[in-house]
Amino acid sequence: MKLCKKCGAYQNDTRFVCLDCNEMLGDSLSSDEATQIEGELRAKIQKKLNEDDPLAVNKTDRIIGNMSLFGIAVSIFMALFWRLLMYNVFNEGFYLALGALVLFIISALYALAFRTVWSWHVLMIRIHARIGDDTEPSCLSLIERKITIIFCFTVALVMLAFAIGYAISYTA
Ligand SMILES: [Zn+2]
After folding, report:
1. pTM for the full predicted model
2. How many angstroms separate the alpha carbon of residue 50 from the centre of ligand 1?
3. Is the domain of 45 the same as that of 64?
4. Could you tell me the distance, in angstroms and rounded to a whole number, from the CA of residue 42 to the centre of ligand 1?
């Protein structure tokens, strides 16, 4: 890879003259430099593709999704806590943990795997309505996605907090 000193464009090693401005090109960049620049360019292209892709997972989605995965683990632990450790107690704590588990699974799916959720949705539409190949999510379904994530995650968090609260007051 060569860098044009005049216009700053990156050029192929095989070129002697800049394709963009006709300036004579100097020596090739070192392979370390070239690898780094290629990585940066790839990241830039990926970012641009994500901006254009309505199904992409952005930073916020990833954070809420990972927190939901953690919530799933804690919910399972809390449900097991009531069922196994507390001798089969079916109380509010158990059902709250179970409810939180379901909602965390939904928010994790919607945040991290919306492409899969969307393909199920399209499949259901095809089965029930037999309408065309309109597989691009509308603005409305993208807003629905955000609302689903925030609603499920928040309610799950509250339910889990209560389940833990019950557990603490039960054992105290
Ligand atoms: Zn140039």
Report:
1. 0.65
2. 29
3. no
4. 21
